[in-house]
């Protein structure tokens, strides 16, 4: 950032004589000092060097002398900025050019991850930008916010720099960390010319950021009418809504941008559109006292009496309010007057019986709090509180008011400004003087301080933060001392009890002094709420029970609720409890929590109560179980699962035959059954055989829980807010079977038209265990889908968007599942229509790597359903469309013909063409052609499509012979380096076989631990690398490699282990993911992109971090070098690097040093 550079010169001290001379422009003295041997790399306290100073001042002469004297051009200051940054910050092009010529790093980044090019773009220095690009500056490099130089140019209205960047390859649709593109910047800063340029160069005008905001929102928010008009002219949607359901008109109304609001309405913006809270743009105008926009909205038809959906106003969230309430509550007299003039009903009442003209200061929020409460809880400065509170009193505010939990304004103030304030508390009387002036008695202050102490004592006393704990105790007691009358001696006793950690006795004394045992803190939590968390603080069961017994003797109410409507029973099972257990590593305490729950139930806790989010204890236990199952620590997982089952048994006894509590939905309309259906294990965990917890496999656990959540007489088909039943949310086949057996409707569709299994496929659970729809399925795909059909599950239908299970499998390159589905269709489905739809799904699919699609096509075409009379012309049309998109589209919309086998008789000069031959085309184009040939061979009429696809005339009219219908092994093609060998494998040429894999007989690599071969999985078509080791040579490092790779299967920066095979008498085989080669191969190759070096380094470091932080034991690689870092390319052509060769790696047990004393690894590495 240029401002950060300039700021150094404004604030730097401890400057050397040479730097001062250069900064003062004294060239003569500067030359003399350099000649006398002054260090040319001397630094000041900001890390600034003489060369940086010369660069900033634009002093080329001194800069050259310094460089000749040994000044390092790439030296950095404390902000990691080089001299090149300093020259650009002050627009000194001459010095910047000199530095670039002297090999200054043009891609260096500072602590803000800004590069020199970003600075040049910000400063509108086109020539410097051009120079930097010529010297190799990355035009798409991003800073810490994910913004590229094009953002800087767009933000600062630097059109020419923007044009240069785009010409040099800058991505106009690149998004930053917030999901915003450069067009957002242009729209926000009203830079119409840059915005127009970006749109001309392909910027998406309706792109949305992470909050679903489009550039039009930015223009509307900032009253940038010109840009807004341009965006609308180019097709921007004026009624697009963000994540809160608000349109650009809301932004204009909120910010009083009348001109943009008028433009939006003229272009079709809906004035009565409502957001998620049911509020219209008129609410926004009324809330912000924007009379002009409010008047415009009303003139254009806005309803002045529309009611808010949830009943919340912007300030107090009061229920059932109209725009007039918003105006009145916010003291917006002008808008209120306007609304009344335009017919707003002044006598309408909200849900609490208040009219719009009810004094705003007494409006209450959902917690029953007025503006006086808001002042006490949000204003940090006690003097400012007194000023605001005094104003509220003049307006009718009530000082001794209480909220829904009987908490007073005084209680909140004492908690925030006295007990929890760690400032000097000697002036506590001054802070509380406002309350004394307004009739609050000393005794009330005394009780408030002790009440807060009583409510939070279990939480604070056992807190790990002893300093804050002690401070809070002293503060509360200090307030009590100050306002005590005859109780001073008792306060001394209380202090002594706390010092001796005699908590029950201290609580007894506070109740004797008048504290209500049901008092709460500002969160509404009572001492009982906090006492339920004692086991997670590490408190023993015995001591926790003592506190609970004390509270019981005091008459604590077990069903009292906090501000989130959580009873103590909810509270001890809530996420807050889990966080505490995770932070303190006290999950073993959950066994005591089970005992506490039993204690609460004995004292009358109701399991039918719900939290503010509508959750019952059953919801909370399911969430707890989900959290427990996701943990890799077997001991913790066991204690959570076993404790959860005990809790369910306990609650089931009390529930008895009353099923209402089990039917209750949370605020997202999820029942406990929905949450149960979503239970699953982490990736790579076993579902069968091994017990998950004492006495339970996963299946037994799920079945046991299900019996507590679903009982005869209940529907297994409740629907959530997405219209999904529990069956839609199943993450395991076990859950699916149990629901169907209980009567779940197998083919109910959700709001998107998805059947349960289609929704499962969309969630891509099958990626957890390759080749299986669910991770706990053991049947092969064909048997599995046959079972699905027998259970009445629909595996054929499409949703509202036209997606089917087959289309998802194709897109995800899931051959085994696609093949199994097709086999079942051919064998079991009597409907010709369904089979034809499957064929069309394949022909429409645009995935280009799945060469095995031709095998599926052949199965369908030759099936009994399609073999006789089905017209294949429609399927061929889909293929022709894909050929034009995938092949002709690569020629940048040139009109080209395609020559297939037989040459067209038409002379070449009449039409350009692409020659499609086996040795020149790629598998990506071949699979499309192969399917087309199959359709033509089996009866599709190519001639009928020639008019619609003139460029494909020769292809459509070619004679297809049987020898062109080659049988191949299914193959999902990605590799470029190994393509030739893999193609041979797919044709069963020069192949060997081991288990379920074919591999080429010629190795792709040799090493000290064995040879490596390129292969293909016959079940899924996946490309693999197969490491072949002689049994006689299997050593400790090979066993370690297998062990380590199994442990690291879920790390994206480590080469993925797939399986190993020991069935051969002479060799052991390890199957890994296939990579293109190692870094020693990649660096000298034409595909090497130097600008991606930082990312490659980052990926390697992330991989190492994963290894070093691996649980349960960290792993040291011990042989990291370019040869053991492999690379490949993703679907977008970006290079990916992964760490490999773990033969010398070692698990690091607790207590061992990371310093290696044995000779390991490769010499010189």
Could you explain the architecture of this structure?
The structure is a single chain. The protein is mainly alpha-helical and 1165 residues long. The protein contains 54 helices and 14 strands. The strands form 4 sheets. Strands 3, 4, 5, 6, 7, 8 and 9 form a 7-stranded antiparallel β-sheet that branches. The chain has a 3-stranded antiparallel β-sheet with strand order 10-12-13. Strands 1-2 form a two-stranded parallel sheet. The N terminus is likely disordered. This is Protein kinase domain-containing protein. It comes from Exaiptasia diaphana (Tropical sea anemone). InterPro entries: Ankyrin_rpt, Ankyrin_rpt-contain_sf, Kinase-like_dom_sf, Multifunctional_regulatory, Prot_kinase_dom, Protein_kinase_ATP_BS, Ser/Thr_kinase_AS. One of its GO terms (molecular function) is protein kinase activity. Pfam families: Ank_2, Ank_4, Pkinase.
Gyration radius, in Å: 36 Å
Tally of helical segments: 54
| Class per helix and strand makeup | mainly alpha
What percent of the residues sit in helical stretches (DSSP H or I)? 40-55%
Number of strands: 14
Unreliable parts: 1-12, 310-322, 345-349, 352-360, 890-925, 1144-1160
Biggest sheet features: 7 strands, antiparallel
Distance between the termini: 38 Å
The average pLDDT value, as a whole number, equals 82
Strand-residue fraction? 5-15%
Which word captures the global form? globular
SSE diagram, text form:
Layout lengths: L1 H10 L5 H7 L3 H9 L14 H8 L2 H9 L14 H7 L3 H9 L14 H7 L3 H9 L14 H7 L3 H9 L14 H7 L3 H9 L14 H7 L3 H9 L14 H7 L3 H9 L14 H7 L3 H9 L23 H7 L3 H9 L29 H8 L3 H13 L14 H11 L8 H4 L1 H5 L4 H20 L4 H18 L4 H12 L3 H10 L14 H5 L9 H14 L13 H4 L3 H10 L5 H13 L14 H13 L4 H22 L4 H4 L8 H6 L20 H12 L23 H9 L14 H7 L18 H10 L14 H7 L3 H14 L3 H13 L8 H9 L11 H14 L10 E4 L12 E4 L6 H15 L15 H5 L21 H8 L4 E4 L2 E4 L4 E3 L2 E8 L5 E8 L5 H12 L9 E5 L5 E7 L3 E2 H4 L10 H16 L6 E2 L8 E5 L5 E5 L6 E2 L18
Parallel strand pairs: 1-2
Antiparallel strand pairs: 3-4, 4-6, 5-6, 6-7, 7-9, 8-9, 10-12, 11-14, 12-13
């Amino acid at each position: 950032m240029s401002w950060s550079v300039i700021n150094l010169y404004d604030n730097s001290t401890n400057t050397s004589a040479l730097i001062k001379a250069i900064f003062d422009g004294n060239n003569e003295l500067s030359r003399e000092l350099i000649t006398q041997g002054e260090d040319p790399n001397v630094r000041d306290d900001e890390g600034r060097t003489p060369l940086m100073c010369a660069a900033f001042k634009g002093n080329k002469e001194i800069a050259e002398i310094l460089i000749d004297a040994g000044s390092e051009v790439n030296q950095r200051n404390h902000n990691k900025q080089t001299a090149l940054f300093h020259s650009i910050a002050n627009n000194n092009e001459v010095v910047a050019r000199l530095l670039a010529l002297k090999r200054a790093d043009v891609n260096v980044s500072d602590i803000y991850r800004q590069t020199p090019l970003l600075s040049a773009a910000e400063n509108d220095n086109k020539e410097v930008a051009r120079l930097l690009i010529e010297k190799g500056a990355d035009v798409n490099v991003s800073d810490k916010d994910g913004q590229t130089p094009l953002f800087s140019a767009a933000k600062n209205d630097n059109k020419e720099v923007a044009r240069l960047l785009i010409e040099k390859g800058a991505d106009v649709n690149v998004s930053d960390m917030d999901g915003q593109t450069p067009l957002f910047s242009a729209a926000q800063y009203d830079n119409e010319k840059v915005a127009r340029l970006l749109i001309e160069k392909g910027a998406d005008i309706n792109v949305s950021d992470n909050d679903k905001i489009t550039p039009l929102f930015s223009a509307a928010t900032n009253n940038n009418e010109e840009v807004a008009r341009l965006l609308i002219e180019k097709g921007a949607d004026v009624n697009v809504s963000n994540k809160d359901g608000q349109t650009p008109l809301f932004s204009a109304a909120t910010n009083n941008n009348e001109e943009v609001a008028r433009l939006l309405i003229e272009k079709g913006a809906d004035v009565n559109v409502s957001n998620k809270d049911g509020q219209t743009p008129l609410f926004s105008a009324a809330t912000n006292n924007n009379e002009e926009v409010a008047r415009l909205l009303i003139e254009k038809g806005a309803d002045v009496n529309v009611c808010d959906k949830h009943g919340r106003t912007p300030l107090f969230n009061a229920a059932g309010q109209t725009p007039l309430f918003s105006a009145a509550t916010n003291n917006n007299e002008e808008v209120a007057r306007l609304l009344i003039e335009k017919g707003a009903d002044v006598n309408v009442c909200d849900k609490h019986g208040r009219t719009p003209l009810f004094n705003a200061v007494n409006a209450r929020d959902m917690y029953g709090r007025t503006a006086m409460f808001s002042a006490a809880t949000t204003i940090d400065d006690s003097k400012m509180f007194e000023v605001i509170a005094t104003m509220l009193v003049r307006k009718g505010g009530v000082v001794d008011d209480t909220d829904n939990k009987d908490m007073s304004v005084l209680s909140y103030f004492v908690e925030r400004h006295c007990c929890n304030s760690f400032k000097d508390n000697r002036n506590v009387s001054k802070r509380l003087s406002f309350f004394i002036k307004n009739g609050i008695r000393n005794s009330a202050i005394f009780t408030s301080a002790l009440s807060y102490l009583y409510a939070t004592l279990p939480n604070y006393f056992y807190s790990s933060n002893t300093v804050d704990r002690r401070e809070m105790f002293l503060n509360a007691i200090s307030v009590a001392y100050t306002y005590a009358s005859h109780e001073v001696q008792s306060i001394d006793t209380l202090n002594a009890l706390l010092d001796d950690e005699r908590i029950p006795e201290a609580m007894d004394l506070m109740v004797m002094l008048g504290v209500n045992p049901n008092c709460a803190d500002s969160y509404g939590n009572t001492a009982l709420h906090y006492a339920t968390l004692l086991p997670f603080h590490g408190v023993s069961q015995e001591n926790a029970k003592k506190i609970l017994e004390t509270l019981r003797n005091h008459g604590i109410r077990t069903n009292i609720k906090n501000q989130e409507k959580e009873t103590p029973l909810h509270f001890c099972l809530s996420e807050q409890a889990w966080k505490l257990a995770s932070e303190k590593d006290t999950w073993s305490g959950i066994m005591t929590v089970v005992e506490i729950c039993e204690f609460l139930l004995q004292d009358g806790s109701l399991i039918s109560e719900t939290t503010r989010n509508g959750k019952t204890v059953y919801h909370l236990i399911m969430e707890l179980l989900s959290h427990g199952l996701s943990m890799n620590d077997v001991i913790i997982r066991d204690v959570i699962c076993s404790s959860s089952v005990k809790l369910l048994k306990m609650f089931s006894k009390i529930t008895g035959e009353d099923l209402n509590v089990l039917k209750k939905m949370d605020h997202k309309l999820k029942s406990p059954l929905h949450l149960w259906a979503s239970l699953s294990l982490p990736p790579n965990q076993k579902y069968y055989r091994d017990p998950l917890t004492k006495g339970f496999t996963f299946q037994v656990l799920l079945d046991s829980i299900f019996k507590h959540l679903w009982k005869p007489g209940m529907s297994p088909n409740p629907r959530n807010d997405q219209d999904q039943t529990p069956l839609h949310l199943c993450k395991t086949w076990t859950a699916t079977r149990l629901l169907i057996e209980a009567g779940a409707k197998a083919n109910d569709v959700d709001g998107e038209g998805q059947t349960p299994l289609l929704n499962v496929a969309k969630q891509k659970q099958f990626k957890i265990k390759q080749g299986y729809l669910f991770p706990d399925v053991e049947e092969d795909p064909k048997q599995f889908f046959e079972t699905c059909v027998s259970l009445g599950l629909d595996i054929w239908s499409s949703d509202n968007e036209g997606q089917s299970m087959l289309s998802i499998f194709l897109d995800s390159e899931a051959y085994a599942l696609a093949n199994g589905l097709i086999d079942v269709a051919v064998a079991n489905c009597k409907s010709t229509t369904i089979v034809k739809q499957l064929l069309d799904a394949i022909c429409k699919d645009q995935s280009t790597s799945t060469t095995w699609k031709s095998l599926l096509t052949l199965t369908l075409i030759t099936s009994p359903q399609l073999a006789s009379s089905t017209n294949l012309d429609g399927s061929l049309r889909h293929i022709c469309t894909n050929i034009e998109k995938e092949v002709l589209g690569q020629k940048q919309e040139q009109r080209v013909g395609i020559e297939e086998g037989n040459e067209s008789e038409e002379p070449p000069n009449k039409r350009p063409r692409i020659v499609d031959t086996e040795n020149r085309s790629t598998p990506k184009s071949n699979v499309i052609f192969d399917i087309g040939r199959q359709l033509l061979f089996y009866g599709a009429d190519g001639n009928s499509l020639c008019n619609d696809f003139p460029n494909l005339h020769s292809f459509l009219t070619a004679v297809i012979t049987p020898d062109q219908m080659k049988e191949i092994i299914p193959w999902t093609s990605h590799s470029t380096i190994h393509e030739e060998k893999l193609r041979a494998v797919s044709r069963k040429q020069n192949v060997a076989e081991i288990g379920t894999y074919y591999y080429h007989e010629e190795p792709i690599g040799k090493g000290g631990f064995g040879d490596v071969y390129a292969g293909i999985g016959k079940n899924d078509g996946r490309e693999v690398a197969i490491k072949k080791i002689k049994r006689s040579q299997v050593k400790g490092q090979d066993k370690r490699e297998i062990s380590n790779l199994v442990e690291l299967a879920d790390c994206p920066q480590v080469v993925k282990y797939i399986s190993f095979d020991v069935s051969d008498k002479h060799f052991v085989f390890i199957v890994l993911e296939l990579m293109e080669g190692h870094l020693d191969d990649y660096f000298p190759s034409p595909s090497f992109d130097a600008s991606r070096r930082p990312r490659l380094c980052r990926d390697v470091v992330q991989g190492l971090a994963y290894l070093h932080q691996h649980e349960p034991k960290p792993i040291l690689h011990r042989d990291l070098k370019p040869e053991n870092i492999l690379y490949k390319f993703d679907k977008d052509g970006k290079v990916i690097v992964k760490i490999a060769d773990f033969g010398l790696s070692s698990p690091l047990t607790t207590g061992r040093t990371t310093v290696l004393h044995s000779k390991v690894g490769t010499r010189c590495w």
